[in-house]
């Protein structure tokens, strides 16, 4: 029996409709769905995805990492030009399965950071790094200072705070290879932090679908670690970096001590040298005029119109590195040496003008 083209098409459409109807009567099992939907990537109501709800769309400048449509556009996985987002995208999409499980993302072999530096990365976590590498770099800080063209301790209206962005794990992990922090001239900085043979990729330590830390993997080598909070007590690098006299505390606490010392130096410098008190708040633009003198942006101090503006080159470098150390909450695991070096060098650079504690850096 022979079939005409029209007959074949009719049979095909009939089969498709029947199959579709049958599929609707069955539960579709999407692997890892319940794990993902309860993760930060699946939380459509969270700030990373709901921030633009009132606008009704995610702008091009943010869509590559804050919407699935934008992610596919950025990668060129939708057939468009790669490494550029062509239009704004729908809100509340989250990071869906196809954002990471597509032929482009799964075959990435390198990642270019905001510094312009490119890291060859043929491992699976290259697909994570694009969106965890920040939006600024040490190079952008340096360029802003060069453009302002003023001495280290002169306030310039042309200088503004540059925010590295959020969840910048790749910046920490690859250190000087990524150039995410402001690295001072004449200093050497840690490159990629090689933990061990069993923890070289993001998903070696994190569940790729829930993003939760696989604490049980730590227990094989680190005795006494039974839950996430115990990781803070781990250290392998010797030295009292924050100068508090305790060489046994976990490396996380060394970093926290240095962050506190750096912020203290920043506030002193801002008042004594820049001539305007500074406060920090957990919201854009992060550094504000400190009207009540408590060092914390609270109440109406958090208004964008109250953003700190008395920037000198020296102060901008230090504030940028403070933010780098602040916005990767796992920096003490990802690359503690690099973050300690950034913090120490920022403290000691401010020490050229104000009194600072004695701190140390791993070489």
TrEMBL record:
GO molecular function: oxidoreductase activity
Assigned keywords, A-Z: Signal
Range of residues in the leader sequence: 1-23
Protein's UniProt keywords contain Repeat: no
InterPro entries per UniProt: Multihaem_cyt_sf, Multiheme_Cytochr_ET
PANTHER family (alphabetical): CYTOCHROME C-TYPE PROTEIN NRFB, DISSIMILATORY SULFITE REDUCTASE SIRA
Protein name: Cytochrome c7-like protein
């Amino acid at each position: 029996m022979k079939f005409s083209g029209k007959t074949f098409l009719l049979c095909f459409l009939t089969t498709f409709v029947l199959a579709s109807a049958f599929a609707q009567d069955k539960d579709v099992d999407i692997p890892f769905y319940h794990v993902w939907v309860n993760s930060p990537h699946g939380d459509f109501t969270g700030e990373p995805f709901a921030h633009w709800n009132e606008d009704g769309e995610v702008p091009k400048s943010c869509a590559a990492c804050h919407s699935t449509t934008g992610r596919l556009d950025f990668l060129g996985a939708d057939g468009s030009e790669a490494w550029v987002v062509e239009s704004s995208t729908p809100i509340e999409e989250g990071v869906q399965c196809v954002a990471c499980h597509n032929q482009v993302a799964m075959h990435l072999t390198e990642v270019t950071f905001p510094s312009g530096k490119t890291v060859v990365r043929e491992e699976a976590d290259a697909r994570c790094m694009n969106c965890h590498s920040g939006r600024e770099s040490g190079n952008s800080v340096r360029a802003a200072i060069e453009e302002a063209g003023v001495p280290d301790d002169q306030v310039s209206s042309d200088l503004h705070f540059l925010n590295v962005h959020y969840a910048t794990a790749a910046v920490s992990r690859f250190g000087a290879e990524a150039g995410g922090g402001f690295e001072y001239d004449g200093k050497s900085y840690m490159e990629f932090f090689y933990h061990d043979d069993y923890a070289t990729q993001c998903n070696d330590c994190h569940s790729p679908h829930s993003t939760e830390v696989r604490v049980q993997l730590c227990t094989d080598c680190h005795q006494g670690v039974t839950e996430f909070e115990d990781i803070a007590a781990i250290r392998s690098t010797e030295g009292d970096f924050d100068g508090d006299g305790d060489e046994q505390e976990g490396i996380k606490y060394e970093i926290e001590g240095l962050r506190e010392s750096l912020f203290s130096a920043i506030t002193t410098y801002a008042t004594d040298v820049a001539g305007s008190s500074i406060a920090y708040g957990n919201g854009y633009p992060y550094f504000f005029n400190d009207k009540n003198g408590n060092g914390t942006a609270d109440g109406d101090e958090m208004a964008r119109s109250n953003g700190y503006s008395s920037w000198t080159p020296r102060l901008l470098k230090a504030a940028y590195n403070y933010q780098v150390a602040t916005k990767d909450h796992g920096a003490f695991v990802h690359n503690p040496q690099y973050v300690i070096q950034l913090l120490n060098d920022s403290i000691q650079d401010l020490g050229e003008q104000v009194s600072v504690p004695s701190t140390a850096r791993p070489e």
